[in-house]
Amino acid sequence: MPERPLFLERASFRRRRLGDAARILPVLAALVILAPVWWVPALVSSGGGATAFFVLWALLIMAIRVLHRALLRAEAATMRAQAEAMHDDDGPAARDKDGTHAV
Amino acid sequence: MPFEALVAGCLAYVALMFAVAFAADRAAARGHVRWLDHPLVYTLSLSVYCSAWTFYGAVGYATRSGLEFATIYLGPTIVCAGAWWGLRRLVRVARMHHVTSIADLISARFGKSNPLAALITLIALIAATPYIALQLQSVRLSFEVFATDSPQGNPLQGIGLWVAAGLALFTILFGTRNLAADERHHGVVTAIALEAVVKLLAFLALGVFVVWGLADGPVDMMRRISAASRDAEFSEGWLLKPDRWTALIVVSAAALVTLPRMFQVMVVEAADEERLHVAGWAFPAYLFAMSLFVLPIAVMGRHLLPADANPDLFVLTLPIAADRDFLAFLVFLGGFSAATSMVVVSAIALSTMISNHWIVPGWLALRRRAAGNDRPDEDTRDVRGFVLNARRIAIVAVVGAGWVYHEASGGAAALAAMGLVAFTGMAQVLPAMLGGLLWRGANRRGAYAGVGTGFALWMIMIFLPSVGVGVMPGLPADIDPLAFSIFVSLAVNTLAFVGCSLFGFPDPVERLQGLSFVSSVEPIRHSRMRQSDDRAEPLLAMSRRVWGADAALRFFQAEAVAQGKSGYLPDLTPRFLTRLERKLSGTIGAATAHAMIDRVAGGAALTVSDLLQVADEAQRAKEETQRLESATTELARTATQLREVNEKLTALSVQKDAFLGQISHELRTPMTSVRAFSEILMTPDLSEAERRKFAEIIHDEAARLTRLLDDLLDLSVLESGRARMSYGVVNLHDLIVRALSSASATCPERQFTIDRDIPTEHLAVITDGDRLLQVLINVISNARKYCDADRPVLSIHVRRSAGAGAHIDIIDNGSGIDGARQSLIFEKFSRLNDPARAGGAGLGLAICREIMLALGGDISYLPGQGGAAFRIRLPVKPPLNSGASSGE
């Protein structure tokens, strides 16, 4: 069984970092939604505050969309890189194939 | 709008839903699932989250509490932000285990324990009954709004019953078509997706009408909202309370994954986790769109409608008050869609849970007792029909319970309060679910403790007060009772779960399942089957009772083929048992499937040592893979070596052919001369002079032939390593002098200037003097023959080597040998110049090289010395096994 690789190719590296971002996003979302109400409840309760809150919410949804699309693209890029590596030779293929399991 | 028209439109809409569901089921049966499988359909089906509580209740909630209504949608948004790694993983694990419901998921994780699933089913049923009642109530209320201007007395008599009966019928028709509960209900899902579109369009149309029709555009609307929020009387409850805000977001986030109906559409109906790529952002966007106009509608409703109007019905009463009949009808349909889709999906989810975790296990236990517990496989009655009927009965029971609750309560409570009761109830399952998916140490005792205490606290603090039985104990005024109850119940629940998990030792089945759920790897079934007897047949009989004869035979045959066997009875390998159990659990739940297989196949209980054996096998498999891999590398290396050797052999064979050709040629030339001149000699009339001349030629040619044969023999002896060497101490100076004098016989007409350093030549070496002399003569003769300088100079230098031994450089000042041919000169029969001039067979240097190798040294061509230059290298002493090694 090949050892876990120490370094990854560009595509896998990028996908891994986007995966990290996907883990951070819900925490960030929770903070963005909870913090203003704990901090300035009166302000958020006002008409302007409510409007601002809806804008924030829309931005959050867009962030989720952007991240998911980026992740899908990165996943496709990794697949391509893998397929190419397979065609190339056995050396780099083995490296990348295992790369998907390393954290 | 006349009431009759409303009823007619409503019935037409219901007929459309039946038609859509029917068409989708037909299409799926024929394999046309492309558009049914679209991620958008999946996303829209998730909108079953927005029940009538959202549709009507959100506006009422916003009227009473301002922005707090948004918590119900913000929680799911946060969960969806983590869809990529959270929900995807949940769906993957659930699909892997053919999970049929939230109760089944938790029971499967904690060692396939049916009592745990039964407890969760109980919570879900208690939580859902008021919630279903709420949907019926909202439908009744919306009818009432229209009926107020009806001339007839009371057309609403029993409307709740009619709606409930219709929904039960729809659910039974389209929800129990297929037996496998983990299979997808295309008809239901498509109808729900369509209803989701109607809901959204109706609400958005109303919002647009309110903002641009009733108010004066968005700017005016925002001004009105700001004014309302400053109006102390209007915005009495609008100030957000951080504790309530947080508690409600937590509960709504939990609801997205724990509510039975959400679990049904999100996990059970999902074909794969890919769907979540779109749903991850599209579902929050749907929720956003549903909440965007809630505040405007609430504010405008308060402005325009009488003070005693029910805020929960603003969405209907606003367009009616403005005389927009069509819009009012559209909104009515939207609310009707929200209510019906929620009831249908809830009924499917709950009926699966009830039949799988209450009715079927109970029935099996009863029969077992009746049968006397000794002949389990003799019973051939059909389980299949029973399971389907159990589900149908459960559907009627669930919807009926909602109707009874609705009739009994009289529908007084505000819509939002009833929805929250259900949310908080199911949230009690969350710690066990999350812990089970993320923590391998979580165990069944912890799950019982957590879910049990959470359930008890929820009953006491939230559910019973909400139905008017008992009251919450008094709390200080500044603490919100709901937020307090949520925090306390969830905190105690989590503590009990973690605490009991820490102090328990899970049984082996549980540990296997824990590994499979947490690491999301294929589950392993490992029970100690009695290997000797053939138990596959009873298993087939049992499966036939559950799936029907054809399906069971198909499955068993496929498994047997996969094992490489013919016929219908596969071997009871762990792999086969795992697959069989998982497929069964897709129909009757993990716990029942496990129990049935164990009973029929006669598996003994799993022990810790079996578990260790499983780990051992995994380790062994890994080692085996490693071994195989290293063997493969070894093989590849050997193959490379073999290829090289083969190439060498081919080259040698070619060389040998060329050598034979050369030899034939070399032998043939003198022989031809000898034969020709012998024939001439045989003619009688020859003068003596001629005769002598021809005889000389024959003699010369014969001599040449002899030389050639001598050389060949010499070479062959040297190459085969059989040459005998006679070693002795030799002075190199003497050898060089003898060589020069011998070689001077070659081309005696040429005068060479010899450049020597006599003192350095006095060097004693141990070697075979005669053989070395032969080499020296050959090299010097070659120089005499081929040096093409006008004033030829021959330099001979002897030097002691740095390491050991000595080397002799013999350099002339001719044009030398050009680079490309330097590598060829030591080959046999290689003659650089034309053969006539050389007069030899081209074996000289080849013999030299063989001699030097035999003596443990070598001879090489030195490039770049201003002429042909050879270096003869000698070792200090000859090799010990000189005889054997020389030919290598």
Any key phrases for this structure?
heterodimer, A: 103 residues, mainly alpha, B: Sodium/glucose cotransporter, Helix Hairpins, five-stranded mixed β-sheet, two-stranded antiparallel ribbon, membrane (chain A), transmembrane helix (chain A), transmembrane (chain A), HisK_dim/P_dom (chain B)
Brief description of this entry?
Chain B: Its EC number is 2.7.13.3. The complex is a heterodimer of chains A (about 100) and B (about 900). By secondary structure, chain A is mainly alpha-helical.
Give a description of the structure.
The complex is a heterodimer of chains A (103) and B (888). Chain A has 103 residues and is mainly α. Chain A has one domain (10-99). Chain A contains 4 helices and no strands. Chain A has helices at 10-39, 41-45, 47-88, 90-99. The radius of gyration of chain A is 20 Å and the shape is elongated. With 888 residues, chain B is mainly alpha-helical. Chain B folds into 4 domains: 93-374 and 381-512, Sodium/glucose cotransporter (Up-down Bundle); 528-605, no CATH class; 610-715, Signal transduction histidine kinase, dimerisation/phosphotransfer (DHp) domain (Helix Hairpins, Orthogonal Bundle), CATH 1.10.287.130; 724-885, Heat Shock Protein 90. Chain B has a 5-stranded mixed β-sheet. In chain B, strands 1-3 form a two-stranded antiparallel ribbon. In chain B, α2 crosses α9 and α20 packs antiparallel against α21. Mean pLDDT of chain B is 83; it is low at 374-378 and 882-888. Classes of the chains: A mainly alpha (103), B mainly alpha (888).
Helix content of chain B: 55-70%
Approximate shape of chain A: elongated
Largest sheet of chain A: none
**What proportion strand of chain A?**
under 5%
Percent of sequence in beta strands of chain B: under 5%
Strand and helix order of chain A:
HHHH
Write the CATH fold name of the largest domain in chain B.
Sodium/glucose cotransporter
**Net shape of chain B:** elongated
Please report the two chains with the greatest interface, counting residues with C-beta closer than 8 angstroms to the partner's C-beta: A-B, 37 and 44 residues
The name of the CATH superfamily of the largest domain in chain B reads Sodium/glucose cotransporter
How much is the radius of gyration of chain A in Å? 20 Å
Number of helices, where a helix is a run of at least 4 consecutive DSSP H or I residues of chain B: 35
The helix content of chain A is over 70%
Biased composition (Basic and acidic residues) (chain A): 85-103
Keywords (chain A): Membrane, Transmembrane, Transmembrane helix
Region (Disordered) (chain A): 83-103
Transmembrane segments (chain A): 21-40, 52-72
